[in-house]
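Record type: ASSEMBLY
Status: queued
Input:
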Amino acid sequence: MSFHSFTGTDSYLAAPELRDSVNVAAALEKPLLVRGEPGTGKTVLAEAVAENLVMELLTWNIKSTSKAQEGLYVYDTVQRLNDARFGDKDITDISQYIKYGPLGQSFLTDQRVVLLIDEIDKADMEFPNDLLHELDRMSFFVHETGKQHSARFRPIVIITSNNEKELPDAFLRRCVFHYIAFPDKAEMEDIIRVHHPDVEAELLQQVLLRFYWLRDLPEIRKKPSTSELIDWIAALRRGGVSTEVIESELPFLGVLMKRENDLEAVMAAHRRGRVN
Amino acid sequence: MFVDFFYHLRGYGLKVTITEWLALMRALAIGYSRADLHVFYNLARCLMVKREADFDNYDRAFASFFMGVENHFDISDELLEWLSNPKLPRELTDEERSRLEALDLDELRERFKDLLDEQKERHDGGNRWIGTGGMSPFGHGGEHPTGVRIGGAGGGRSAVQVATDRRFRNLRSDRILDTRQIGLALRRLRKLDKDEGPEELDIDETIDSSARNAGEIDLVFRPPKRNRIKLLLLIDVGGSMDPHTLLCERLFSAAHKANHFKKFEFKFFHNCVYENLYTDISRWKGEPTSEILKRLDHTWSVCLVGDAWMSPYELTHTGGAIDYYHSNQVTGLDWLRKFRDRCPNSIWLNPEPQRIWNAPTIHLIRQVYPMFELTIDGLTEGIDVLRGIRPNRALAA
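Status: finished
Output:
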């Protein structure tokens, strides 16, 4: 397969660096670790890659209780015990009680798939280390059946992290790393036009001006992200708010700011700004 | 050339390993860089730099390797940072101070930036100094001996220009932190308890697991979940600590919210620890320090937060306490030593950057406590000392 295969989709605009990172990860058959602020499209990236390359997408959503083993397979002993009690099934074949997790499935398919391991930093600190061998060799061993499964087609693995926990070095060494920077004004315009194709230019400019001004305020703890901006524009348009009002009043601010302290800080800064 | 680049990166503190290097070689071998420096810049970064906090270092390394762009960034950084900090330099006289206060900080910052911008555009041979002219009221020239030089990129290699932009400066982890980051750093303290003690039989889990295992008994052991961390936070308030109030508040609220300590106590002091420690910021309600010391033992960790900046006699003389009516019998330094002797597992966090730790009292205190910057990196290092995975080393006397 060629390198320059992932190009982004109509609804997902990928920066050239991001496209390169995806393609190099696919070519080197290494997992791609994507980090960035919430709302910069980390999770959607995997969907876009799958859509663009016409591959199936398998998703493994990590929770704080997730174990590496679950991603490979689970031996369903309870089901087997049930079947044994009622005697309506042949239970000697253990393999029918092996339930493969997303990682296991991605190795077993007969074509290349995209595997998304979403929010890996939610799990225990040691979780990524438990995956090292499997991600390196793309194979795993099922103890119950004594079988070794190796991937025939190495999946494109995309791992997202919100930076809640520092990931172990050994794990990082094996990944291709990409940091999605927060989009600048020009990129943000393109993104908004995807979601609001017919937005008025004047409104868009005013909104962007306010939005980046807001994000730059040092006292803000939780900076609003892209998805909140898109919601805000939707709210402003539905409310029929004029650009002058946006400038003077910052309406529907609750859509952008979710913390009370931040809201107050913005209002205070806004008042200061108008006095000057 | 490429091997040189590898060592060059390592020289800039990037922990690039052979595995990652080989991955880059493989990518180059299959023609990935497309003979384009910009693509190479991104390719090398995504394979070898795995933390956005290191991007800035990478940019500097890349720029200096491929352009020989000399690295004079830091000085302007420092200046801007310093200008954005409303604290006045300590050694100013009253007269200078009043002159200074007449100047609008924003205005000054703008002027400085304008100067910088102008310089970037001119390209006149590369060396034009931003003199002390614009800055002279501050009289701080001694710390910036030659002023600021901008590395003007002459030719069209865009990747290097991108690198010299240093867009990732704000992601460096040696910047100051917010409550959440502090909370995360403090979470590291929780790990201590897991590693300790023999494993215990988990009855519930054993029953559950045995049932799942079709009646075969399956014993489940796990480390005890007791948390052994006892933390005493002593925070310097008032005076020279005022500019750091926000930062200390954040540390305090993060520590307060972290409910994973077995015991957590906090006290305030002013400048140095004397006979009394205070339970409120206004320092009305006090408690004798000796009483507090009695409650402590070696299982406690003490974390002192302060700029350690005072007159030497406040630390070393009896009766030297900063408050006029307060005549202390035991010197501040002795009190500090008492804490250290009682709880060897102790550190000092200093909100001031390490480059200005040059007061004599800082040196004295560093002989008692290992001192760390109150930044992500500093806090993490300090916590590693508390966890015992980094040697607890004070300065040699």
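Annotation: Confidence is low (pLDDT under 50) at residues 69-76, 82-90, 119-158 of chain B.
Annotation: Chain B has three domains: 2-67, 73-152, 179-197+226-387.
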